[in-house]
Each structure stands twice: as C-alpha cells, then as structure tokens.
Amino acid sequence: MFIDTLLIGISSGAIYSLMALSLVLVWRSTRIVNFAQSGQAVFSTYIGYEIAVRAHDYWISLPLAIIFGALLGSLVDLLFMRPLLRRVKDGPIAEIAPVIATLGLLGLLQSLLGLIWGNAFLQYASPLSAKGFTFGSHTVPFSPQNLFIVLASCAVLVIFGFIFKYTNLGLALRAASFQPEIAQLAGVRVSRVRNIGWAFAGATGALAGAVITPTATLSPNSLDLLFVSGFIAAVIGGLDSLVGAVVGGLVLGIGFSFILQYIAGSVTFLVGFIILMVVLLIRPRGIFGRDAGRHA
Amino acid sequence: MQSSTSLRMEKVTVDFGGLRALSEVSIEIHSGEVVGIIGPNGAGKTTLFNVLSGLVTPASGSLFIGGQPREWPRSHELTKLGLARTLQGVGLFSELSVIENLLVGATHLNRQNFLQALLGLKARSEDSMRERIVEILGDFGIADYAELSAAELPYPVSKRVALARAFISEPTTLLLDEPAGGLGVEDIVWLKDFVLRFRAQRSVLLVEHHMDLIMNVCDRIYVLNFGQLIAHGTPEEIRNDPAVITAYLGTGATQ
After folding, report:
1. Residue B87 lies in a domain
2. Mean of per-residue pLDDT scores for chain A
3. Do A166 and B120 touch (CB under 8 A)?
4. Facing residues of B174 across strands?
5. CA B103 distance to own-chain centroid
6. Does B17 reach chain A within 8 Å, measured CB to CB?
7. Which residue in B94, B103, B123 is closest to A295 by CB distance?
8. Fold type of domain A2-120+143-282
9. Which of A128, A258, B90, B112 could be cross-linked to A145 through a Cys-Cys bond (beta carbons 3.0 to 4.6 Å apart)?
10. Once rounded to an integer, what is the mean pLDDT over residues B216-232?
11. What is the pTM of this model?
C-alpha cells in the first residue's frame, strides 16, 4: 500500500513539476507569474487532440502539441507581453499589470477554445494502458501511462539541466534572468533569450497537458487544477529555482497522494494550500529561493 | 589605427523629462590613451556612459568610431563595436560562477546559431575560450576564485572579476565606471597598473572619483558640471583650471 501510494504521488508530482517548471521559466526571464499558462497548455493539448483524431496516432500528436506549445509561448511574449511591458514601464500599475494581463489572456484563450471545440469533455486517448501494472496477483495503481508521464518528466529535466548547465544558450538564459541590463551590456540579446524562455515554458506546459489528459478528459478548463498545483509547487520551490520547481512538485504530489490514501480525499486540496502557507510563513522565498539580498 | 581617433562623441544632449542631464557635450578618445571624466555627483558622467552604451537615447548628438559616423549602439551590440563597460558597484551575474561570468562576457566571440546553442554543440573555440579565461584570471590574480559563485566573492575580487569580464571581450576601448570605488590602496595600485598596461595597445575611458588615480593614469581629463563640459586638458592643466577648482576641486580635494 505504501509503495502504491508513493507511485501515484510520484506520477502526479511529475506533472506538477512540469507545470511548475513552465511557470518558473517565465518568472525567471520576465518576472511575471503567467496565469495564462494553463490556457496555453490546454490549447496545445487541443491541437494534440485534433492531430490525434486525424492521424489516429498519439505519438505523432505529442511532439506536434509540444511544438505548438513552444510557438504559442513565443507568440504570447512577442505579441502580448512585449508591447505591454514597453507601454507600462513605471507607476504603481507596472508590476501588477502584466500579471492581470495574463489572467485576461487566460480567459480569452479558454473562451476561444470553447468557441472552437465546445465545452464538451473530449477523450484524448493514448495507446498506453491506463490499467495498473500487475505483479502476481497484485495490481498496482501505476499504469504504463503513469510510467510514461514520469519518464517524460525526467527527460525534460535532463534536457533542461543540460541546456542550463552546459550550453551558451543556458548561460545566457541564466545571466539574463537576474541581471538583464548587465547581460545586455555583455552582448546577450536579452529580449531574444527571454522569448526562448517563453517558448521553453510553453513547450513544457504543452507536454504536461498532452501526457496528463489521456488519464482524464479534455475541456477548456481541464488543466486549471493542475495549474493551481503547479503554482503551489513553484512557490514552495521558490519561483526562481528550476530544481525547486521539481522538488516542490514531487513534495506536493507525494503529499497529496498520502493524504488521499490515509486521511481523506476531501482535504487533499486544502492541504496543498496549508503547505503553501506554512512555507510562505517560515521561508517566504521558498525552499530553494535566492537570498533576499540582491547583488546587483 | 595608431593615433587615429578611436572614438568621438559630438554635441551629446540628453533630457530626462524637463531636466537637461547633458548639454552639447563632446569628447574624444584616441587609441593608446587613458581619458578621465570627472565631476561632482549628478554632473552627468554616468549618463554619458549610458548614452555610449545604448542605455539612454540622446536628444541629439553623434558618434564616430574610427572616424566613421555610427548610429548610437544598442546595448547588446556594444561588445561587437569593440567597447566593453563595467558598472558602478559590482555588476556581476550573482547566480553564475566566476568562469561563467567571463563566458558571458565573451558572448560575441562565441557566436553560435540557435540550433547549435539548443543542441549544446560547442563552438570549436569553446575549449580555447576556457583556457583563455583561466589565463586571464591568473593575470588578474584571482585564479583561486574561478569556480566560486559571484555572490560569494569578497568585494575587491568581484571588482576584478567585473573588469576581467569586460576585458575578455577584447575591447578596443574599455569604459570603466568608478572602478576604484570602495577599493583599498593595494587594489588601486593594481588597478592603476592594469589601466596603464591596457593603454599600451588600446584606450580607456574612465569615470572616477578617486583623484589620485585619475591624475596618475589619465592622459587627458574632461570635467563635467551640471551636464556641461567646463574644462578639458592634461591632469596638470585641470589641476590648475580656475573653473574646475571652483566647481569641483575647490574643497581642497586636489591632494
């Protein structure tokens, strides 16, 4: 039972981590909490669904959904955020305006999806079984699809880890995220690098949507709860930290799973917020957040 | 390039709202020269640097590099034009290690296209770049700090790392904004030596409050006050200029 609960926790935690990562990637590069992320992710999932219906192949739809997610992320930055940030530079509204704008964009995207696909619950099926693996007579609540979710999340982490640690692009992303002006003076094209950050975030959100949706249904709001969990995970991890996002996601996923199993399903979500508040009260920067002192 | 004008700004005027921060200021730097810009706080020294580095757009004025007229650079193009700037204070990427800070400084020497960057294919020069970084850190006397994160460095070391990060981009002109700020005597002696060595092939534009350093290393000095150029000359001339003494050195700061 313990192992089963842990496995479910890891699987949902992996998805929270992906969502948290997509939020952290945007936060680091633009200092914006992108509330539209769930809208972008679900949009990409609809694209994946549409391709899967036409091509009858989940494995073709998955990478295309991810590419669409990247393009959408990049476009949101280019057409929406950049003009906005250029206009609203200072004043009391400057810090909050972009965040409110992402909420507006979320509404816009979800309404648009409703207009195109309706509000019915669609099935975006994966060829992988949703039935748990069986060992002898015991069937664990961990299916091939769950395994795929965990593997896909690990792959994303390895890829991002590699990019951030070992490539010039990763170096530029890290440099531009905290000291954009200095990065600019050192020759980094900060706006381009930021745009790549938005694209990475969009792709990551799209992956989360496309691997989790086969275990549930697809509707314009179907990723909203995932977003909330991802957001909590990102804040627990400190919003700035990629590693923190992953750890936050796993902590939350495993925590939820144990509460669901051993306490009661009805309090699961409540506990998420309690964890969030405790972390914010004890360590407002999050577990992996940077020290408050800025070294400009 | 010898003795040709390496950089000239002509009649630069900058307005911030209703305030005139710079008024028709012209300065030039020849290769092989160290040129100082001094003036009281708020005189417009850093604004002049900001114009030159693309952070502030002037209301009017023109730029010449190597005698050719140029658009005002955008800040990410600065290093490509052979200019490298340090900032007041520390100005390092605090999340990155010392080596990584220098790698970012070398960005324009290390161009990759997007696909290469994404796939992590290193330019062939990457290894030699690392060797070069180690060599520079050695020259700067800070090799021991190579792997530390910039946030962990003692202040004088971080100032040297900032200088090294500008230096590695192979600039023809270094723009140093208060490089001696907060440094002790030994570090200032080192800095003086560095500036003079660098001058041998290239040029330095120096904003500094440390009079001893300015008077010792500069070939020529421009004096700004309230956005206006009030004097220009050799250290000796500046020291004896009545306008400068009134505006700036009058408080006995000459020594």
Report:
1. no
2. 89
3. yes
4. B84, B204
5. 18
6. no
7. B94
8. ABC transporter involved in vitamin B12 uptake, BtuC (1.10.3470)
9. A128
10. 93
11. 0.86
